[in-house]
Design goal:
Helix content: over 70%
Largest sheet: none
CATH topology of the largest domain: Growth Hormone, Chain: A
CATH architecture of the largest domain: Up-down Bundle
Number of domains: 2
Number of helices: 15
Radius of gyration: 21 Å
Distance between the termini: 38 Å
Order of helices and strands: HHHHHHHHHHHHHHH
Structural class: mainly alpha
């Protein structure tokens, strides 16, 4: 007798059991994200620019390590890539803890802290690619959208929990508690993953990373253009509110995050039903509307609606375009494909700050959302071209 196909619930549970390691990793990324700048600026006495570089060093490390993360996932297996990533977080936690012990030597403390941030960035790349590739190997490439979506829910949800938790921890127990928490969480992940069965390495032709990158690039470019809106909102919403004389910027981020996660939970099946291109196009229209409302918002209420629509629209862009992008590479180079695709999201976050900072400096904070909306429209146009070319 033929075996029954696994139910939707059992597939989701399989995916969740794997992206749990993404959740642990991003809790560790979220814990220090809101408190490291103040530590560098106020405790160590460095400028706000140095504080920004310290935070940004992690994202630079993630960006530069993407090719290595993809190769590891393809060649040595997804579980081993995740184990290496968790080990990196553990060492990062130890270094973060040690940096707070030598606070009396600011330059030395900062150097150790930055090394820890670099390790955390590399670990983020390894675990992000490893978990999605592991999910696809476990449940099949036909569930790529669901795998990417649940991985995103785990990461964004973890940061949403970790950032305020880090603030509370520092207020109650001091900065030394950060390093301890990172080390304990990473050690917990390493213990739990020990007996989890891995999926076999996919045999076959391994395309060079830059060959994969070339195939993925058109889809990644569209993702990058659309995702600058995310980087703009998360980076500048507080300053935008201050510029308008408003209070409650944190609520804007909360509404964005809630709508983002709800959209992924409720509408993820739309990608398999209507296709990645159609889902991405619809979402980009909604995102553009949300960014336009933020640009024109006369009140905080309208700004909240704009943030909600932006989160709702951005939610499915990454998995929807990802489904189409991964079709361009063989399964044996799946990890490299996921890495190449993720580079473009990293790039969006890297350029959103300086690009929109220049816009705010010359035109005012409101115009950053107008420019982000224009870039979203550009992403929409490129996606329409890719859809036409595909069919």
């Amino acid at each position: 007798m033929p075996t029954a196909a696994p139910s939707s619930l059992s597939i989701t549970l399989q995916i969740v059991s794997i992206v749990f390691y993404t959740f642990i990793a991003f809790i560790c990324i979220g814990l220090p994200i809101a408190v490291i700048p103040s530590y560098v600026h106020e405790q160590l006495g460095f400028s706000a620019v140095v504080a920004g570089i310290t935070i940004g060093s992690q994202y630079l490390a993630t960006l530069l390590s993407r090719p290595m993360a993809g190769r590891m996932s393809d060649n040595v297996g997804t579980k081993r890539a995740i184990v290496l990533g968790l080990s990196g977080i553990l060492v990062s936690g130890v270094l973060t803890f040690f940096s707070t012990l030598v606070e009396s030597m600011p330059a030395f403390s900062l150097g150790i802290l930055i090394i820890g941030r670099l390790l955390l960035g590399v670990a983020q790349g390894l675990i992000g690619v490893g978990t999605i590739s592991w999910c696809m190997g476990a449940v099949g490439t036909e569930h790529t959208a669901r795998s990417i979506s649940w991985n995103g829910i785990a990461s964004y949800g973890a940061i949403a929990i970790g950032a305020p938790l880090g603030v509370v921890m520092v207020a109650e127990y001091g900065y030394t508690s950060l390093g301890i928490a990172l080390s304990v969480l990473a050690a917990l992940g390493l213990v739990l993953i020990r007996n989890k069965p891995s999926v076999p390495v996919v045999r076959g032709e391994r395309l060079p990373f830059w060959a994969v990158f070339g195939r993925i690039a058109p889809f990644g470019a569209s993702l990058c253009l659309a995702s600058i809106g995310y980087g703009t909102l998360t980076t500048f919403i507080t300053l935008y509110y201050l510029n308008r004389g408003w209070e409650g910027a944190a609520y804007c981020l909360t509404v964005f995050g809630v709508c983002f996660i709800l959209s992924r939970l409720v509408f993820i099946s739309a990608i398999s039903r209507f296709g990645g291109f159609t889902a991405a196009i619809a979402c980009m229209v909604i995102e553009t509307l949300g960014l336009t409302l933020l640009w024109l918002a006369p009140t905080t209420g309208v700004a909240l609606i704009g943030a909600g629509l932006t989160g709702f629209g951005l939610s499915l862009v990454y998995p929807a375009l990802g489904v189409e992008a991964i079709k361009q590479v063989p399964n044996s180079s799946r990890g490299a494909g996921l890495s190449a695709y993720a580079v473009f999201f990293d790039l969006a976050l890297a350029i959103a700050g300086p690009l929109m900072g220049a816009v705010a400096l010359n035109l005012g904070y409101g115009w950053i959302f107008f420019c982000a909306a224009l870039l979203s429209v550009s992403a929409l146009g490129l996606t329409l071209l890719l859809k036409r070319r595909a069919y």
